[in-house]
Amino acid sequence: GQQVMQIPQYQHVQEGEDFTTYCNSSTTLSNIQWYKQRPGGHPVFLIQLVKSGEVKKQKRLTFQFGEAKKNSSLHITATQTTDVGTYFCAGTDSWGKFQFGAGTQVVVTP
Amino acid sequence: EPEVTQTPSHQVTQMGQEVILRCVPISNHLYFYWYRQILGQKVEFLVSFYNNEISEKSEIFDDQFSVERPDGSNFTLKIRSTKLEDSAMYFCASSEQGLLNIQYFGAGTRLSVL
Hints:
The complex is a heterodimer of chains A (about 110) and B (about 110).
Chain A: E1 4-7, E2 10-14, E3 19-25, E4 29-37, E5 44-49, E6 55-58, E7 61-65, E8 71-76, E9 85-93, E10 98-100, E11 104-109
Parallel strand pairs in A: 2-11
Antiparallel strand pairs in A: 1-3, 3-8, 4-5, 4-9, 6-7, 7-8, 9-10, 9-11
Chain B: E1 5-7, E2 10-13, E3 19-24, E4 31-37, E5 44-50, E6 53-57, E7 65-68, E8 75-79, E9 88-95, E10 104-105, E11 109-113
Parallel strand pairs in B: 2-11
Antiparallel strand pairs in B: 1-3, 3-8, 4-5, 4-9, 5-6, 7-8, 9-10, 9-11
């Protein structure tokens, strides 16, 4: 069945540094969504990517969907303490099955 | 801004008891979802609901689970005969369209089975 994997599971970043988290699916995806969950909070939608090779930016966040539509990445530049949380990718495969990845927990130190 | 509301925020129950978790989706949304998140783990899809019937469900959503839209505003998740391993945060979400659309999550209900 479909597997959505995220790496790394845990990311410790110094404030001001850049980092990237990756999302890989075992099957081709119709779309990929990214959510952010603050500690003790609920997932909040960040972005959706639909097209092969699509790149979208939100301020310091850059999201990319792979050419084969099986992987995605989230790159954050100049990390701030407000970026703390767990970032989940979630994808829908061609059979309509929807699955979240395990998430990347981001800790930012000043 | 419209939001998904869930009640109660925390539910404590004895093993074997039935619980009903309640959700009020955003009013113009047509698709509703339940997710489960065991402490420290990923968000797991349970079920999606559209047009008064289940449209998708995961392997987790077995016979002990059921969903219902009893009126025009509420969307409920019932767990019959709760088990210790049902302890988790349960999130309700809704979207205007299906899974290819933005999902808005409620704050969740923390279920503790003793």
